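Quick board copy: two proteins, each given as sequence then tokens.
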Amino acid sequence: MALGARIHVLLLPLLLLPLAAAEPDGERDALMNFYDQTSGSGWHNSSGWGSDDPVCKWYGVTCDKAGKVRVLALHSNNLVGHLSDPGLLAPLKHLEVLWLARNTLSGSLLVVTQLAALKELNVVGNQFSGELPAQIAQLEHLERLWVRENRLSGPVPDLESLSKLISFKGEQNEFCGQFPTWPMHRSWLRHALDLSGNPFLCPLPEHPVVHQSGATCQNNRQPQCP
């Protein structure tokens, strides 16, 4: 589904904030801290950001009828910055969708690990590096994890506890070590798992999920991978 159409579908269940509703504590400050750390003055579109308007009227922000931020969609918007602090977005306690694809963001995905309500994470085409944090496995509502085309490295963590995960796109990173075993317990991931373009250690397991993932391998063991 095209990006614009997908966002349209995601927003359909959400009702915009009535003007008289109060904003949840901390959300405005968290959004402005995020704006500052991602060079907000240089975004392609920053309409409303930093104004006295309700945050739900800011570009890329969508709220439910109670005024809680549910979606932050700022893909392809010239966000530039180094992120890693898990506390940066933590006040967005009700955030379900975070789309930051096709920007110039670096640092660690630890920045998303306190978003307990998160269902969709899309950071495709950025410069995030280091390991995919094991704390991702604690985001029990996560359904889509799209991290392809970054600089993530090390072993893929055990995400078996994510019982709602239906799509994991991790291609074109630097994941290595043994191919993770947990996807082989998820037959429904067969057509929604992509780990191509990562140097896993040979041999790869003989399993349909592995074959469908597009994974390849190499024989030389890398120091950062067991």
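And the next:
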Amino acid sequence: MRNSVVVVVSLLLMMMVCGPAMAESDQQIGQAPVKLGLDGALAMGQVESEQTPAASEEPQLLANMPKGFLTGLKGFENFVHPVSSPLYFFDPFIDTRANLLYVWHKFPKKSALKGGDLSVWAMPIWVALTERLQLTAVCDGYSRIRARALRPDEGWNDLAIGLKYNLIADVENQFLLSTGLSWRLSNGHGLTLHGGVDELTPYVTAGKAFGKWRTIGTLGGRIPMNRHMGNYILYENIHISYELLENFFPLVEFNGVQYLSNSDRLPLGVGGLDYANIGSNDVKGNSTFWGAAGFRWKATPHVEIGATYEFPLSTRENDIFDQRVTVSVILSL
């Protein structure tokens, strides 16, 4: 999380630099006594000529920025962002935003973890580099785990960085299609089930509006860089929302995870769902599905608040999902 914060703060500072940097110099020139005659005119002309190149640097700096830098792709402001499964539910939008995130997750008592809960605090960040290209920095943050089968612990999460590119942006029909690749680093705290294996996640994501209805879908794969330390996973996410009141969207979401392989890291019959890739040795062929119900409220054009309650749609004992609450506050440019 600390690395992603540095990125966005640096970009915001670049925007601030484009202010009137010469204000102090102009004030000093205005206070200098004015000379009369030819000598005075030549002196004043010299001062103006010395200031002209510096004053022209400001628009030149802005002109050199790629089109859409920080502002991203416009024309889709009537959509809202997904809430559930926030570490892997990539949406098709190209924008600049930070997601202040809290997740509380409860483990089933009859699962291999024998009950307990998990809390995650995170701030995923997305930065528009152009109208079509976006930098993603997700899966960061801090976790505290209290599972009865594990020693209670807490620590920093893995960091995932990547790029997303918009393939289709049809403003008239309110349709977007984007694709991307995220690289999850194994730099997190091992006793919170992070830090086990680097993981690549290629995905495709689309969004479509139908009147007051909004739909978003994502299909992705999670590829461990070491098959002995992580499982191959296929996942999918669906978001459906409706603008019931102005800027207020009740929503439902559906999420699924399929384990395509076994691994050798942990002797467990459950996986890490959308939280971690724990490399279990007895999960191949297992699938877990869960739903979410909640809302998104666009409090201002730059603040979006959301929350969901999430519940299993498959057998609770098949994995580590009993129930979950996700709270999200998005701050965007």
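Board note added afterward: The radius of gyration is 25 Å.
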